[in-house]
Structure formats: structure tokens, C-alpha cells
Amino acid sequence: MGEEAEEMSRIIQVRFITKLSSLLKVPTNAIAIPSNLTRFGLSSIVNNLLEAGNPDSEKEPFDFLIDGELVRMSLEQFLLAKGISAEKVLEIEYIKAVAPRKEESSSHDDWVSAVDGSSSRFFVTGCYDNLARVWKSVKECSHVLEGHSDAVTSVSIISPEGVETVTLATASKDRTLRLWKMNTEESINNPKKIRAFKILRGHKASVQCVAAQTSGEMVCSGSWDHTINLWQTTDFDKEGDLVSIKKRKVKDQVEESQLEGGPVSTLVGHTQCVSSVVWPQRESIYSASWDHSVRKWDAETGKDLSDMFCGKVLNCLDIGGESSALIAAGASDPVLRIWDPRKPGTSAPVFQFSSHTSWISACKWHDSSWFHLLSASYDGKVMLWDLRTAWPLSVIESHTDKVLCADWWNGNSIISGGADSNLCISSEIPVQ
User: Fold this and answer.
1) How far apart are the C-alpha atoms of 274 and 335, rounded to whole Å?
2) Which of 74, 168, 203, 288 reaches 20 to 30 Å from 52, CA-CA?
3) CATH pick for 102-427 out of 2.40.30.60, 3.30.390.50, 2.130.10.10, 2.40.10.10
């Protein structure tokens, strides 16, 4: 036993390197450290070296890479697992640990079921109280979107950046989608109630998801009726967009008009609920379904271009990662699966992450990183992942019940909503 313990804590020569700012750089000369250190011990050493050079430096949690792979065990175990010799000086790169430094929350009257954080100026949530809301921060609601007669299941910001008037889309269990316009620049003291300018009818069952085309000219929606519908987002008539005017009296005097539209086209092929849709390129729509399949569609022709089956009911889907080509999906098991469709002849996932303990309800790639994505689960946790390691970088436990939705916001925050009726923001996450 003594020899084994001695072997596990042998002394090795290492050199710490980093691409971080000069304030976070330590001397690059080799130093001797015990091989049984984990990332927490390594983090202490780097912080002590930083403090020696600058007594005012604040302690910072770090992560460590050897040959481009994150270290998630002791150095000794890592070197043995990877067959790396400890006879030479080991080069270890350190980066800021990808974990939130701050957490905030606000409570709702019912389940928070949907979120879109694709705008840097605001984010949108959907709730089981039949309302959608626009937020400037977790405590500051600027707009309340009234009109649905059942739970809001999905929300989408159609024109996220660069325009004063923004169009939003919402989907609901009431079988409709609604389109809304709002001015993001107007000064509002209290939340402003707004009505949809257009109601989209055509699904025969609850609408589960909505996604916008990158140009913002159209949205697509998935439903419990097994179909995907494509819709125009404009407020004027186009071929195939059957518009009628619905009027209502306001305070028994003024009449307001509301457009109603039908689908431009319908994509048919799924045999169960279409649980998630994304529209990452103008010509391609991706969908996930309870029929166990991920499908890619030609948006112009409606043709089903490719299918992947995973043997589980699928709840969520996102496209991102390297060259925006990887498909991430969560299912009715604890496994987050990632496929690379560029690899021919295989439908097997290239990554499978299985740290959750229940169904995965949401997954989302980081906009500016090839490696990072998040997952949310009915186990009440949000997890941050890096493709360079099989273990989560961080586990966020802000919720006391199922997490129903999650998204990135502003590149360094995560917004999540749950069956605990809470909206949570975990922020100051340094993704590199």
C-alpha cells in the first residue's frame, strides 16, 4: 500500500501557460508539484503564483487543459489514462472555469415553459398562465403579451438585433401561434400590455415549438398533430397566406383589427408530436419528434432530406458547434446526444453525455464557441458542457422542480425556467 500511495503522489515537473490577459499570466518556468493534484489543487497553485506577483489579485477558479483536453481527474490518473510520460516537463494550459459567478431569480404565477435569449437587449419567456413576457433583466419586465387562451409552449425573437421595432412569435396549447410587434427603445415604467397583430391558425392540436428563419420573413412550428407548418411573418397578404380581419371593440368604442393567417406550406413525415424545430439556414429546417427521429427538411420543396433515429422520445434539438454543423438533442432519458451529419455512413452520436438523472428538456449551443453547450433536465439541474471532457463543467441547481427551458443570453449568462414557477439567471460565465 505504501508503494502505491507513493506512486500516486510522485513529484512531476509542469509549466503553466495561458491565453488569458497579462494580469492572469504566471511565470512560465517549470515547477515541481505532486501528481495527485486535481483541478482544484492546480487552481490553488495558479492563484498562489498570481498572488505572489500581485498581492491585490483576486482568487479565480480555473480549468486546465493538457494536449487540448480538459483535466477532470488527478494529474496522475490523467497521465495514465492518456499514456503521457511524466519524465519530461508537462505543459498545462489554464483557462477561467466556465461556471456562473452570480445567480438571480424571480417568481411567476405558473410554470415558466419557454425562453429565448437571442437578443442582447432583452429576453422573452412563455408561461403556463397563458402569457408571454419581455424582460430587460430578471427583475424588469417591459412587456406582457396577452391573447393566448392556453399555456405558451414556445417563444421566438424573429429580428433580434439592429431594429427598434422587434417582431416576436409565440406558440401555445390553444393550437395557434401569434405574432407581436414591440418597440424596444420606448421608456416604460410599468409592463406594457400588447396584443398580437396576427393570429396564425392551421394546426389541429397543441403547438409545441416555433423557430424563425434567419431572414425573419417566416417562422416554422411543430405540433402534436405531427406536422410542421411554415408561416409568413409579415402583416400584409401574400400568396398562400390567407388573411382575414378580426375586429373587436375596445371600451365599447374603438375597433381594433387583428390579422389571421394560414400556413404557407406543411411538412409531413413525423408520426408523433413534433417537439422541437430549428431553422439555422434559409434552405434547411431541422425537427425532433416523439417518434424518436431527428429530420432535416428542404424548406422550399418540403422534402425530408435525412432522418436519424435514436430509439428514444426526443424533447429538444439545437444546431451549433464546429462550423454550426453538429446536432444536439435531448430525450426521455438522461443522455444528451450529439451527432455530426458530416460523417457519412453512421447514425451513431459522436458524443453522449449522461450526468443528468432524468429527461432532458432543453439543449442549446453557445453562439461563439465550438465546444460549449448547455442542457436542462427534469432533474432540476442545468448543466454546462465542453466537448473536450465527458463531465459537466458546471451544474446549476437554481430550481427546486423540473427545469422546462433554458437558453444563453449575452454570451455569458443562462436563463432558465421551471415547474417551480421560477425564472433564473446564472451570469458572469466566462466562455472562451
Assistant:
1) 19
2) 74
3) 2.130.10.10
- Interatomic CA distance for residues 202 and 261, integer angstroms: 8
pLDDT, mean of residues 163-180: 94
Give the total residue count for the chain.
Answer: 432
The average pLDDT across 213-231 equals 96
* 239 — pLDDT class (breaks 50, 70, 90): very low
**For position 189, what pLDDT does the model report?**
76
Identity of residue 215: S
pLDDT score at 422: 97
CA distances in angstroms from 104 to 108, 346, 396, listed in the order given: 14, 43, 12
Is a pLDDT exceeding 60 seen at residue 4?
no
Tell me where in the chain the CATH 3.10.20.90 domain(s) lie: 2-96
Going by C-beta distance under 8 Å and a sequence separation of 6 or more, which residues neighbour residue 395?
355, 381, 382, 383, 384
CATH 2.130.10.10 segments of the chain:
102-427
Residue whose C-alpha cell is 382575414: 244
35-74 pLDDT tens trace: 999 999 999 999 999 999 999 888 999 999 999 889 989 9
Q: 7: part of which helix (H) or strand (E)? A: helix 2-8
Window from 172-176, 338-342, 403-407 with minimum mean pLDDT = 338-342
Q: How many CB atoms lie within 10 A of CB 137?
A: 13
Q: Which segments of 158-195 are extended strands (E)?
A: 165-172, 176-183, 192-195
Domain 2-96 belongs to what topology?
Answer: Ubiquitin-like (UB roll) (3.10.20)
pLDDT at 270: 97
Residue 231 CB contacts under 8 Å (≥ 6 apart), including other chains: 177, 200, 202, 218, 219, 220, 221, 241, 261, 263, 264
